[in-house]
Amino acid sequence: MGLFDLEKHFAFYGSYHSNPVNIFIHTLFVWPIFFTSLVLFYFTPSFYSSSEFFFLGHALIFNFGFVFTLIYALFYIALDYKAGSVGAVLCFGCWVFASSLANYLGFSLAWKVVLAAQLFCWTGQFIGHGVFEKRAPALLDNLMQAFLMAPFFVLLEVLMLFHYEPYPGFHKSVEARIDAEIKEWQDEKKKKTS
User: Which of 162, 184, 161 lies closest to 11, judged by CA?
Assistant: First the structure.
C-alpha cells in the first residue's frame, strides 16, 4: 500500500468502519484519544533549554508532543491538501490546548485524566467494533492505520457528510473498494468456519 495513496488507505479504513453506529462512535472518540496523548506528551523533555514560548497565554514546549503533532499535520496535508490543512489546524489546536490543560493539571493529575479518557475512548471503540461492526479493529491488521490515520479519516468522514471529495469520483471509487474488501473479508471468514 503506497504511503500517500489516500484512496487505498481510506478504503482499508472504510472496510473496518461500515456500520453507522461504529462510525459515530469513532467520530466521538478518535480525536479525544489524540488530544489526551498530547496532554501526556507535554511532560516529555524539551529539545533544548529555552524551548518554551507562549501563544495566546499558553505555555508551549518544543518536545515530543510538538514533533508528534507536526508529523500528523504534515502527513495529513500530504494525503490531501484541503482536508489535510483542516486536519493540521485541528492537530495544532489540540497541541496548544492539550499543553495548556497539562500545564494547568500538572503531571500528578494529568496522567490520571489521560488514563481515564483513553480507557473510556478505547473501550467505546472496541464496543463499536465488537457489537456493531462485528469485526476486529483495524489496529490488529495495520497499526499505522489505527494510530496515524484514524483522526484524519474521522475528519474526512465528517467532511464527506458535507459532500466534500478530495477529487471528483473519490467517494464512488472508495465505496467500490470498500465493498470489495468487505466481501473478501466475509469470504475468508466463511472459509475459516467451514
Answer: 184
Helices (H), 42-169: 64-79, 81-105, 107-127, 143-144, 150-161
Nearest to 175 by CA among 77, 183, 187: 183
Q: What is the DSSP letter of 43?
A: T
Secondary structure of residue 138 in the 3-state scheme: helix
CB-based contact 118:39 (threshold 8 Å): no
Phi/psi for 127 (5° steps) reads -65, -40
- Give CA–CA dist 176/12, Å, rounded: 11
112-158 confidence digits (pLDDT tens):
999 999 999 999 999 999 999 988 887 777 777 778 889 999 999 99
How many whole angstroms separate alpha carbon 156 and alpha carbon 86?
A: 10
Q: Residue 32 gets which letter from DSSP?
A: H
Cα 14 from Cα 11, distance rounded (Å): 5
